[in-house]
Amino acid sequence: MTADVAVETTPEIPLWNDPNHPVATRVDALVAAMTLEEKIAQLYGVWVGASDQGGEVAPHQHDMEEAVDLEALLPTGLGQLTRPFGTVPVDPALGAVSLMRSQARITSANRFGIPALAHDECLAGFAAWGATAYPVPLSWGATFDPDAVRRMAAAIGRDMRSVGVHQGLAPVLDVVRDARWGRVEETIGEDPYLVGTIGTAYVRGLESAGIVATLKHFVGYSASRAGRNLAPSSVGARERADVLLPPFEMAVREGGTRSVMHAYTDMDGVPAAADETLLTGLLRDTWGFEGTVVADYFGIAFLKTLHGIAADWADAAGAALHAGVDVELPTVKTFGAPLVEAVTEGRVPEALVDRALRRVLGQKAELGLLDPDWSPVPPALDGVDLSDPEALRGRIDLDRPENRELAREIAEKAVVLLTNDGTLPLARPRRIALVGPNATEATAVLGCYSFPRHVGVRHPEVPVGIDLPTLYDTLTAEFPDADITVARGTGVDDGEVSGIGEAVDAARGADVVVAVLGDRAGLFGRGTSGEGCDAESLTLPGAQQQLLDALLDSGTPVVTVLLAGRPYALGRATAESAAIVQSFFPGEEGTAALAGVLSGRTSPTGRLPVSVPGSAGAQPTTYLGARLAQASEVSNIDPTPAFGFGHGLTYTTFAWSDLVAHAEEAPTDGAFALELTVRNTGERHGTEVVQLYLHDPVASVVQPVQRLIGYTRVPLAPGEARRVHVEVPADLASFTGRDGRRIVEPGDLELRFAASSTEPRLTATVALTGAERQVDHTRRLHAVFTQEAVEGV
């Protein structure tokens, strides 16, 4: 390490730097030694961008905040560095050098030598230039494969940790309540159990790599009215408890997450950032969470500017601290001078500052940032000659082959085949008409939090940094003997129709049409999907439906392929397309995955994490609707989906049989044991996803008609059969009763084994007996599945 990044140490180790003492003891000693200004400095971050020349990070000038003077701030310390890699394009090696030098400056500037905790986005991979762009969370949900998601998250975490990042702002555990919401692509789906299991797997993977996972957005953000971003949320206590909170509860209990980000929204007039019953009473006192609560960006200031519950910045800071927010992000605003003044004047108790500080310093101690041998040199630069930073350019690879292999695995498992009349897989077509705005668009596979779409679009002079083959590229490789004609037809959302005639001519001259439609990810209205890119209806953007209808009229079979961030109503194409293939922003390996499914090189195994609507205007609706939410004769709006949650076809067929319930009754504190056989009756290898839904015919409060309580993937060779066993705890029948307590009621239940929410295969009618039973956060959360081969097949 060069002299300019050396950190001075003294022969005597202060108590807070001595790892031989318990963390709490070290933290108490450090808190007692700090001034008020030094304490508060640990509770905020500064938004920075790393230098592409290896110099120190520079404060990011954001249009919502005034410039920050690092020189003035650093003598008292700095709690966090915000998005050093995710703010401007920077070569990873030079970015690591930049962060290293900045950490050295930070530690040398404050008298306790405390480094900052660096965080970055990792919603669909590490949001850094040149890092692997994985599929978006909605694709994670489509895999129904927690283990694959865990392995992906571990890889993301290792890359982040290697360059000096400590915390990742993911996963999003918001449950989709309205598909018009722009951030649907960032979610895992519309079912709380699917969101909870996949999200918890992501947390485990990220934390296994030493990265602090951050659950967001706690809670209710996705329930905004009319699907508008940052709009009021109308959520009752029961919907909050039974739909929105369970994924967070699962991730806290089972994932080992060390951070939670509050939501922007309010519930019944109380903003999440100022909700003590949520951030302290529920999260900490009930669930036992011991990590840090961080602000969503500018969320504390919003208590004054958007919510109107604070008169000034000090009021906002005090309200957030009192509620249980520990860290202001992305930059200093309310937790700086306004909070110092408020504490000095007695408006905010210093004890609240100390409470948050202990959590922040405790986390830094656990990360090794207070240890005497801590070094600002990240693992990727350990032992490297740093005398010539420019010579390091290209040294760190954040898109290694093993990353891409994981990205391809997730992308392939997430492809959902919605319909197929036998056209797929394509049997070596001679002429293919490749039509649509996303057919030759390289970034059509990326979500709004991928680096190229989130940051790169503001730097068009910088190469994208990763290989992004278009679907044209991968289809050309997949079908080398085919004549592929390309016609754009129309743009994603420009409404242009002048190219539709050319597209139809191409279709008429082809054996098959592959129509590649969908979204363009962006931010705040600069896309058709993404944060702030909400939809008025679920009609395909622009003139894409008009293009699709014209292609259907051409007389040539049309395979509709969707690269999108949300589900769309497809009109007559639902019934008239030869096949429909749905992919939710599948990442850099996405077009290869799609080409493999179209050719039959791989068999689709994805299942819908969100319902595909039957009509564009029947929102908000999800499969979790109660009886009144279903189609009826007293309304002219039919919310029935075209394809229900959990739906997905394969290139083979399966038979389900021999359901056995070992007991038809169990006490309210008991469990049911069931088993069934699943057999591949087709001629190709395939994976069936056995989904288990609970139907409660009579309950003391209105229930969804059904809800997912378990699932398992069953891979089968042709002719192979497996016996699937499942234990279903009575706890899974619990819900929030009339008095707000979670209860298990006696009575009849239906356990539906299904291929989707609309395709039940086998049903067991069972009964819970005995007294009503109250359960809490220690209840069992999972049905336990096991599988065994059926002999003699």
UniProtKB/TrEMBL annotation:
Belongs to the glycosyl hydrolase 3 family. Residues 688-757 form the Fibronectin type III-like domain. SUPFAM superfamilies: (Trans)glycosidases, Beta-D-glucan exohydrolase, C-terminal domain. It comes from Streptomyces salinarius. Keywords: Hydrolase. PANTHER family: BETA-GLUCOSIDASE. This is Beta-glucosidase. SMART domains: Fn3_like. Coiled coil: none annotated. The keyword Ribosomal protein does not apply. Pfam families: Fn3-like (PF14310), Glyco_hydro_3 (PF00933), Glyco_hydro_3_C (PF01915). The keyword Signal does not apply.
